[in-house]
Amino acid sequence: MPEKIKVVVNEDKCYLCGGCAGVCPTLAIEVHSTGWEFIQDKCISCRICINACPVGALSAEPLEVSE
Ligand code: SF4
Ligand code: SF4
């Protein structure tokens, strides 16, 4: 199993193009005119969004999983 991640956005870089939301297979990212939103419960830690962002605004942080 890949490491579980939390996807975080650098709001200074993100221009809300919606590309990451478009490639996420589980719809774990929503991009609205008001901002970028990550839904942890839907994320499968595939990292596709991180590689897809044209300006490198996304990064992964390890997710603390409670035992
Ligand atoms: S692909 Fe990058 S720039 Fe576009 S909405 Fe997602 S994080 Fe923002
Ligand atoms: S890591 Fe994969 S599942 Fe999680 S938000 Fe990014 S594209 Fe979606």
UniProtKB/TrEMBL annotation:
SUPFAM superfamilies: 4Fe-4S ferredoxins (SSF54862). One of its GO terms (molecular function) is oxidoreductase activity. Residues 5-34, 37-63 form the 4Fe-4S ferredoxin-type domain. Keywords: 4Fe-4S, Iron, Iron-sulfur, Metal-binding. InterPro entries: 4Fe4S_Fe-S-bd (IPR017896), 4Fe4S_Fe_S_CS (IPR017900), Fe-S_Ferredoxin (IPR050572). The keyword 4Fe-4S applies. The keyword Iron applies. Pfam families: Fer4_21 (PF14697). PANTHER family: 4FE-4S FERREDOXIN-TYPE DOMAIN-CONTAINING PROTEIN, ADENYLYLSULFATE REDUCTASE, BETA SUBUNIT. This is Ferredoxin. It comes from Thermococcus peptonophilus. The lineage of its organism: Archaea, Methanobacteriati, Methanobacteriota, Thermococci, Thermococcales.
